[in-house]
Design goal:
Its main location: cytoplasm. 49% of the residues lie in helices and 13% in strands. It is of the alpha/beta class and 234 residues long. The longest helix has 21 residues.
Length: 234
């Protein structure tokens, strides 16, 4: 129920789904719910609340729970949002594997851990997938859906359909790869940025300006491949 978990809860509630927010500490859950309430009220007042329901209606869809079995009872989709620690995530999925049925989807928010490392050996491995959001998911709609060799195609399709339904912008990777796609593109930009600044070609401030007042404005609505396609010479 940290930053990503809270944001996911808001996204799913905006889509009209019942959400159970799970954590091991009651105080963490209580503060998370208070934070969600505050955010939703502010969003509603400013006209930026997502979904067709009011803030109160969306808040009524979110409940909190410190018992994992009770939290996932009746669930159709489980989104794990623990810290980026392989052993911790494997432990959680190992626990879930013992209590879920054959229909629920087990999804991870990991931004860099390969799904094959997370899910291998689980009884429900075919139902496991990565749904990597961009922080914060409530405001940045992209979700990278990353299957692994044992993921059932229906798991990918159902996850994709759900993300579309709640207003996110899902993309499907055909196979797992280190860093997925968003971070690989980001790393390439960061690497060149370090080089240009390090070699004294440009100042850090001006380098950032190249992105914020140049490429960034274009990339906010058009990707690099479409940019090339539509460029002056076509």
């Amino acid at each position: 129920s940290g930053l990503i978990g809270r944001s996911w809860a808001m996204v799913f509630a905006a889509g009209g789904f019942k959400v159970k927010l799970y954590d091991i500490a009651q105080q963490q859950l209580t503060s998370a719910l208070e934070n969600i309430r505050k955010q939703m009220k502010e969003l509603e007042e400013s006209g930026f609340l997502k979904g067709a329901l009011s803030a109160e209606q969306q808040l009524a869809l979110i409940s909190i729970c410190t018992d994992l079995k009770a939290a996932v009872d009746g669930a159709t989709f489980i989104q794990e949002c623990t810290p980026e620690n392989l052993e911790l995530k494997k432990k959680i999925f190992g626990q879930l594997d013992l209590i879920v049925d054959d229909n629920v989807i087990l999804s991870s928010s990991t931004s860099c851990l390969l799904p094959s490392k997370l899910f291998t050996g689980l009884k429900h491995v075919k139902q496991c997938i990565v749904s990597h959001p961009v922080n914060p998911p409530y405001f940045v709609p992209l979700v990278e859906i990353v299957p692994h060799a044992e993921t059932d195609p229906s798991t990918t399709e159902r996850t994709y359909a759900l993300m579309k339904k709640i207003g996110q912008s899902p993309v499907k990777l055909n196979r797992e790869i280190e860093g997925f796609v968003l971070n690989r593109l980001q790393y390439a930009v960061i690497s060149e940025a370090w080089r240009l600044v390090g070699e004294g070609v440009i100042s850090p401030t001006d380098l950032d300006l190249v992105m914020s007042d140049g490429l960034g404005m274009r990339y906010a609505f058009i990707g690099p491949l479409e940019t090339m396609h539509l460029n002056a010479e076509g």
